[in-house]
Please model this.
Amino acid sequence: MNSACDPSDYDVVVAGSGSAGLSAALRAAVGGLRVAILEKTDVLGGTSAMSGAGTWTPANHHALAAGIADSIAEAIEYIRAAYPSDWKEEEDELWIAFASNAPRMLRFLEEHTPLRFALSEEPDIMAERSGGKTRGRMLSPQPLRKAIVGSYANRIRRSTLSHLFTYQEVYDGDLYHRPVRAALRFAPRLLWRLLTNSRAQGSALIVGLLRGCLDIGCRVETNSRVVELLTDAEKTRVIGVVVESSGVRRTHRARSGVVIATGGFEWNDVMLRRYFPGPLDRLGSPRSNEGDGQELAAMAGAALAHMDQANIYPTLPTYYEGKPHGVPIIFQAERHAILVDRNGRRFVSEYDFNVGEALDRRDPGSGMPIHLPAWVIADRRFLKQAPPFLWYARKVPNWLVRAPSMRELAGKIHLPAQELEKTVARYNDFCAKGRDLDFRRGESVWEQFKAGGSRAALAPVERAPFFATPFNRSILGTKGGARTNASGQVLRPDGSAIPGLYAAGLAMANPIGTRAIGPGTTIGPNLTWGFICGESLLNESSRRR
Model:
């Protein structure tokens, strides 16, 4: 770094300190650029810090070392097979860029940060489709001590999840169903992590990325909200940002470019209601995700796309920073429970990872969800299967509805009683016969993995009392924003690039939309798009010299 530079003069300014932003900053800084990371809140990491940090990375070196065959070509084939055909025309170039750069990204992170990733046992969600894999593409960070980031150790955003456990330990210990047994099984490890203030999952991801950024000389500023993009005299090129901190505005110049990585817009009530009308249960991300990046890009003349896409995921009610919040838990995928829509009918396999996509299915005319409000319907055995469910259920009075018969339950939640009874009877008949003829519950590779076998997913709902709980959309992060090209450059409506402006993560029009293709297809692509932006900025800097 050149100490003679103006302290507000940088090569690159990154707005946002989540996985996409830190990945972009790290790649650019390792290449020799002077980088500033600006975070609007007083803590770092954004939604990524709260996550389980499942990182879907095809053709990665850990899988290859484990003897698992994979290739970039197979990953591209799988992504194409997983999405509707009308997505390919717009997204294929970006899918290719992601699949090609993801393996390089992961190796780069392990070379330039303390992060070390480990494979998990999870298959691709649609492993049966062309190019799919039953193992090898899912990874998550190993634990790291928070002390390695020095004064920032207590400024990593905390999670609603327990990051004492690694991603794989959550599965191996069956933490949701057997929390006490899991804690005892891993007690020595957990005690050591408590004593050393070490954490895994999203906490480890941000600690590792931040350490790498600090080591290479990135400047990190908290409580610094980007409120405006600076352009040149011709208003064609982005050359910096205006930052607001404690009511004071100042400028940061960015010779090579600005990366927007500010996350989603789910806490912007106006935007949320516009793009996600209808019932909503909870949000599970930081309240700072207010659409700053989407608004900044739009003011710069960017085309916005995929504004109706999001990480829609089941949550249970909790409190975060003293306010109602959602903790991400797949609680509906349980024996002795089904999902029904507002008409009292099933509409999806309860074990489908992409249940959020089914919840968000909309009427082409009105744009409103066709299944909502939806409900989990269960019998008494459901409550005994997972002690944490009752712990969270008690946080919201009357959230869990109880009745001695299915007919009375229907009356309490305003569903057509005859239709609900018919639905439950049909499902119970499938359980007796051993196959769900409507939605093939428990039959896919993913659902067998989740349920512990094909027949394990099927169990009747028949023992009173019966229970119901709302099951509408919960959002962990929207996925719409500035349309970009394969280099991460933000595009105008006519397809031309806005010089000096890049977007990554949940602030871009993410080519991996509501439909997930792997459990880690938020964090994996976010890290990769940050990496791509960083490399593009290095290329831009070389051209301008």
Notes: The mean pLDDT is 95. The chain is about 35% helix and 20% strand.
